[in-house]
Amino acid sequence: MLNRVQELADAGQHADVVAFLSERPEQEVGSSPTLALLRGIAHYRLGIAEEAERWVKMALELSRERGDKAIEARALNASGAIELDTGRIDEAAAHFMEALSEAKIEGDHATVGRCSNNLGIIANMRGDYGRAVGSYTMALAAFQQADLHWGIAQVMHNLSITYRDQGDLAKALSTADDAVEEAQGAGNLRLAAATRAGRAEVRLLSGDAEFARREVERVLESEGSLGNVVGEAEDLRVLADAQAALGETEEADKLLREVVERAESLERPHLAAQAERDLARLLMRLGRTGEARELARKARVRFGRLGAAAEVQKLDDFLSNAAPG
């Protein structure tokens, strides 16, 4: 049973993980720290935060009771990932550092990769791009040692985002291409979708809005079949931005507002802030200055709570250049 669940998880089929384990007695799943962890991670990937926290906490407690340091480190990393997505950045960073320390002692390259990758995400959010690249470099080396192509794909995807945020679109696109190739080779459907959407956003910023729209529309079809509601919401934001670039402003306006609602219901403050920021920029282009400023201020508050210093500075510049109206 454990091998089957792990295979589903490695393929990104998290809805199938939940369905498979739901057929087993809860006591049976809850008696195995590994199964409890995989169920928690699956719920997390599906955007079910409360159940994700319950199962990951169960896995963490069980692993500590049994002295299973490997699963303890993985559970700590999973706890940090949930905290990161729900906006508890300091708690997330602490859990990632604790898990990284444990994983290094255990020689667990996969968990070293996971933790370093997540620490890179936090550094990138804070605008510390040098530290982000350093963390991603460590993560990449760890995943290569473990021969985990899904991990390599994940790191390349995040590294592409850092290059994108720095404005190096050529390097971002090249890295995004590598991420897509690795994800497809790993057979992880969820990650393949995420990397393709990430590449589409880089192409959009490079001026190819039509390609971005076509690519994201194809990605959304696969997200629906996977039941990946979080990924779907993230992709809809990119689709809306592509629509805006193509002059389909009414559709983009409506879709971005929908993304904010979805992000709030899924407890994804970072995604909500991104959608509000993008909508503010769209409304400013349309001359709706007052609404644009209001949304920009909301996004700024969200980004500020997340410690996203670079985004806060960009919105400060946006607000200072936008005449009240």
The structural class is: mainly alpha
Sheet of most strands? none
Rg on CA atoms, Å: 20 Å
Poorly predicted sequence stretches spanning 5 or more consecutive residues: none
What is the helix content?
A: over 70%
What's the order of the H and E elements?
A: HHHHHHHHHHHHHHHHHH
Give the percentage of residues in beta strands.
Answer: under 5%
Averaging pLDDT over every residue, what do you get?
Answer: 93
Discrete helix count: 18
Number of β-strand runs: 0
Quaternary organization: single chain
Query: What overall geometry do the principal axes of the alpha carbons give?
Result: globular
N- to C-terminal distance: 61 Å
Q: What keyword list fits this structure?
A:
single chain, 325 residues, mainly alpha, 0% strand
Account of the 3D structure:
By secondary structure, the protein is mostly helical. Helices cover about 85% and strands about 0% of the residues. It contains 18 helices and no strands. It has helices at about 1-10, 15-20, 25-30, 35-45, 50-65, 70-85, 90-105, 110-125, 130-145, 150-165, 170-185, 190-205, 210-225, 230-245, 250-265, 270-285, 290-305, 310-320. Helix 1 packs antiparallel against helix 2. The longest helix has 18 residues, at about 50-65. The chain starts with a helix and ends with a helix.
